[in-house]
Amino acid sequence: MPNHDQDRSNVSDRPAAIVIGGGIIGCAAALELIKAGFACTVLDQGALMQEASTAAAGMLGAQVETHEPGPFYKLCRHSQELYRPWTEELEELTGITAEYVAEGILRVALDEEDEAQLRSRLSWMRGAQWLSAEQIRAAEPMLAPEVRGGLMLERDHHIMPTALAGALRAALVKLGCRIREWTPAYRLLQHQGRIAGVQTAEGPLYADVTVLAAGAWAPVLTEPLGLKLPVFPVKGQCISLRPEAPLNRSTLFAKSCYIVPKRDGTALIGATQLEVGFDKRTDAEAVAKLYRKACALLPAMRDAAFVRTWAGLRPGSRDGLPFIGTWPEAPGLIFAAGHYRNGILLAPGTGLLVKQLALGEQPALDLTAFAPGRAAGAAGVSG
């Protein structure tokens, strides 16, 4: 393999890894690769963790975000179980807290159809408890009287995305990861039938393992390989309000919106789901709709002060599943893209799976459902 990568000049005794994409998924993968002995470089076309990663609400909703049992639910649960020790490890390493809050999520029902659908999940969902209308208002007295009941999901916690981003970046720096911001990846490099690195404006970078974690921008790099990866941007807009006093202890989640109480006294309310390309502009109509939905759920929210609004581009996929694994047509490349609304939740689990694939180990989960080859009608591999 050519050896033009100056980043490897003083670490030639270690295998090298390049992670394309500096979001929460890419950075989690880099962290695991460094801990496994790789000399790791993270590339991002902009600043680290400034797209979907820090625009998220920070919910660790393995239960609330899944509507049926199966591979995705197993993936979410696996990552959720890793989360608390993962954030504790980051805090021990850096002294920075991710603001982990171990309060559950209350998935409320506002109509008969929603109640029936939620009750049906009790047969397969772990750690879920149905609360009657009376029980739910005893737990959250400020809820609207229209609430019929809901699922108490005690294992679904939350973190502060900006705090997690700070801790994760500090950990990468402390462990010697080379971070190259404002460095777009133009194309993947091949050598002797393998993916051997990436071409940037500053020249080629070579590595033993390349991880594609570029979110909604990933398809640009796979199309020249003959793989049209169906990952696309979905704009999610959120708002932050500050009530005079906290109105809810648990995160409240309805069909129309969610309200996440943060430690600084604000309430984070989201989120829109719009396929409008790479448009990140915020708009007043979306703010107004989110505000009305939040007030319908918590009427006292009408007196809250407006703090700010923002939008992020989530990497969606047509079947709702991320692409995690390898593809026979591109050995040397590991896919970790298309996590949509669950990038924060799935970060530690995906990082661990990427490390296992890079080391040639058996992945902790069967990755067949997430195989990149499904985008080409191929079987793909699970690692």
Q: Main attributes?
A:
6-stranded mixed beta sheet, 383 residues, 8-stranded mixed beta sheet, 3 domains, D-Amino Acid Oxidase, Chain A, domain 2, FAD/NAD(P)-binding domain, alpha/beta
What does this protein look like?
- This protein has 383 residues and is α/β, with parallel strands linked by helices.
- It has three domains: 6-55 and 163-229 and 319-376, FAD/NAD(P)-binding domain (3-Layer(bba) Sandwich); 105-153, no CATH class; 231-317, D-Amino Acid Oxidase, subunit A, domain 2 (D-Amino Acid Oxidase, Chain A, domain 2).
- Helix content is 27%, strand content 26%.
- The strands form four sheets. Strands 5-6-4-14-15-16-13-17 form an eight-stranded mixed β-sheet. The chain has a six-stranded mixed β-sheet with strand order 8-2-1-12-19-18, covered by helices on one side. A three-stranded antiparallel β-sheet has the order 9-10-11.
- Strand 1 (16-20), helix 1 (24-35) and strand 2 (39-43) form a beta-alpha-beta unit.
- Helix 1 (24-35) runs parallel beside helix 6 (161-174), helix 3 crosses helix 6 (161-174) and helix 3 (71-94) packs across helix 9 (343-358).
- The longest helix has 24 residues, at 71-94.
- The model is unreliable at 1-11 and 378-383 (pLDDT under 50).
